[in-house]
Design goal:
By secondary structure, the chain is an alpha/beta fold. The protein is 44% helix and 12% strand.
């Protein structure tokens, strides 16, 4: 993380003065440079930005930082990232990991529009460290106006034997804080979170209170732990009925009910 901070600090002063502009490099159009940047990891982006002024200027184009895949957990090998890229091209080599993600979020908070947060298997790492990283990252988004957010595979953290008590409370609090400050969300995707009933309800309540009027697409799979008695749970129904602007929704069968379906049919004319 220190290396990232130092390199970002140096960028404030501009590109490396020891690398004079090459005429051929200067002729590359911004669109071409952005295509190159989008296929580089964060450290390579930083190195590229210090080559010459055109590359430095392209590094700061807001469009380059609108979409970010943020990973918390065990770092993945380059081979794993490339294999994943074969199936998810948008995520190819654009990953930002843990503490690195925090530094870039501090640098480009207002550029972020679409983020995907994924929790990877920890392989022995301390859950407290991951929760602290996520808490710090969430705090960096206070001035962001996100349009889309995906939270994936939280089960990898919640499956830890140590993920109890204050650790679980802190994570739920960070999620709530993040959602409460986002009032422009249009798309939300939650997969494999496996909350208990009360934690899942708190999450739904924060999401509904902050963005129920703007969310058009809502996808939720594995929000609750298996075996959680959610069918017919009145509090879940109350929170979901707050979403009145939906055009597309995908939920688990256990969450759906006749009353909820009728509410959405009457209140969401664009629902498909």
């Amino acid at each position: 993380m220190n290396r990232i901070s130092e390199m970002l600090t140096k960028l404030i002063k501009g590109p490396d003065e020891n690398n004079p502009d090459d005429p051929l490099w200067s002729r590359l159009p911004t669109t071409a440079l952005l295509c190159i940047y989008q296929n580089l990891g964060d450290l390579d982006r930083l190195s590229m930005a210090r080559v010459c002024k055109p590359w430095y200027q392209s590094f700061h184009v807001p469009a380059l930082w609108r979409y970010r895949l943020i990973e918390f957990g065990e770092t993945r090998s380059k081979r794993e990232i490339k294999e994943d890229a074969l199936f998810k091209s948008k995520r190819a080599l654009t990953n930002s990991y843990g503490k690195y993600a925090i530094e870039f979020a501090k640098r480009f908070p207002t550029s972020l529009q679409d983020i995907e947060i994924e929790f990877l298997p920890l392989r022995g790492r301390d859950g407290r460290e991951i929760v602290n990283d996520f808490k710090e990252f969430s705090a960096c988004l206070d001035n962001s106006k996100l349009r889309s957010i995906s939270i994936l595979s939280l089960v990898h953290l919640s499956s830890l034997d140590t993920f109890v008590g204050q650790l679980r409370i802190d994570l739920i609090y960070s999620l709530k804080t993040l959602l409460q400050k986002q009032h422009c969300l249009k798309k939300v995707r939650i997969c494999s979170s496996h909350f208990d009933l009360e934690s899942g309800l708190q999450f739904l309540q924060c999401l509904a209170d902050a963005s129920a009027a703007t969310i058009k697409e809502l996808f939720m799979y594995g929000l609750f732990q298996r075996g959680t008695p959610i069918f017919g749970e009145g509090r879940i129904l109350t929170e979901l009925q707050k979403f009145k602007s939906l055009s597309c929704i995908k939920l688990e069968y256990d969450i759906m009910s006749d009353e909820l379906a009728k509410t959405w049919v009457r209140g969401c004319p664009n629902l498909s």
